[in-house]
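User: Predict structure, ligand zinc ion.
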Amino acid sequence: MKYHNPIAAAPALLLAACVSTPAQDTAGLDIPAVSAPGDISRETMVEVTRTLSSDEFEGRAPGTPGEEKTVNYLIEQFRAAGLQPGNNGSWVQEVPLVEITGKNYAPLTVSGANANLSFNFASQWVGVTYREDQQTRLDTSELVFVGYGINAPERGWNDYEGVDMRGKTAVILVNDPDYEMETLDGPFGGRAMTYYGRWTYKFEEAARQGAAGALIVHDTFPAAYGWNVVESSWSGPQAHAQRGPDAPRLTQVNGWVQKDVAQAIMQAAGRDLAQLSAQAKQRGFKAVPLGLAASTSFENDIRRFQSRNVIAMLPGTTRPDEVVMHTAHWDHLGICTPDETGDNICNGAVDNATGTAALVALGAAHRRAGPTERTQVFLAVTAEESGLLGADYYAANPVFPLSKTVGGINMDAFQVAGPARDVTVVGGGKSQLDAFLDAALRQVGRVATPEASPQNGYYYRSDHFAFAKRGVPFLYVDGGEDLIDGGRAAGARVAADYTQNRYHGPKDEFDPNWDWSGVMADLQLFYRIGRKLGNSTSWPNWVEGDEFRAIRDRSCAADPGGC
Ligand SMILES: [Zn+2]
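Assistant: Predicted complex:
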């Protein structure tokens, strides 16, 4: 996952007995009891995580020898688990990707009547193109400050109102206008980030507006990560989905500038970033042409290739065409910026060799317990780190119709921190799946803690989002922070250590001394939820008013035999 640690810094006051799904939304749901715990192999979890995160797998970047090894190894593991190929006799789904690697970057220059600024690539700005062009140029493209760069007709909000962005470059704030609220009230869900706050949305909307460039102003708190993460993620090879003929419009350049660079640009325009940012939070904000023009250029190496999703299944008994989905991304960053020891392999042990191993271990446990009435699917997707590309490709080209996909569980980065009294629920209260989670939590004597930082928009940052945005309800639950041994303080320490020292770096490595008992307890929870959904006659939906409810209702209405 790009930028992900929902349990970081969870204030204790957030503890709750169960995730808050209104009673009227869970009434009448068929939630079968699951009598026996799953026979889930700790050995499998340890061995698969260790192997996938070994240097031999070279950090599992799509389109590299690391992919070959990973895909072949996973097929072997799924086969050994007694599962069946999940794509019409094949274990894989080809995912056409293109890798674009920018090079020979010119500085970003900003010029105007009394300004001539120049900013260095990597340390002050980063930028890429999503276009398969050998050469990328931004030529004296007029700069326009567009606030949060949001066009949300359903909320009566349009930062691009009355401005023609064709050929211009948008300067955009990260997150959404009300992220500083204490509560969840506000035009954009208050403290919780909406999809409008995500960088993906910012670039998509600027492109829809016809902009030639889109530059997001980096700011650590609203972005939820430091410049180091932006720099490492926006330089080097970038994978994108290969674009079909009717693909949406693209800008020339998508990128980020450091906050002090944005301030320097505003000063050169006779403006103040803090003042403009305050205005941008107000309804009715109007975009501000800065009277300056931006230019830069760079070249691109283009490589088209097929990556692969790996799909395994345990066919259902009486309703095999109805499926319960389990997802985890197998990919990681591959060869990355070396650390102080010179180690340049981003092994991705926690992120996400653990989640991928969980697919194998859970699949084997379900097979040992025998099939459920519905089919259980285990989908290891590619290119999550590049923007959920494998999951998006699957959800756009599903092997099992989405209207026959009951719901799912996404697993991304287990915290190997020892057992916890709670779990952290990302996107809690959005769907009736929470009732299945609650029932399973009660059975294992654990409680749910809502995510501590809804302003970070974690629900939009991993593979379940590719399904959710097409209407399929998905759970995204992480191990909790209230550790049996040491409580929340200990949990917070573990989370902080991961985020600061190991996340998306060479130090996210397998540790033979890890205590797996917490992970095994989390897997027992996911196992029970999978069994309950697999034997339920219900089609859990999003709660009334949720942003995905209408999409699901439409897809169900279109398939009488489905949801
Ligand atoms: Zn991840």
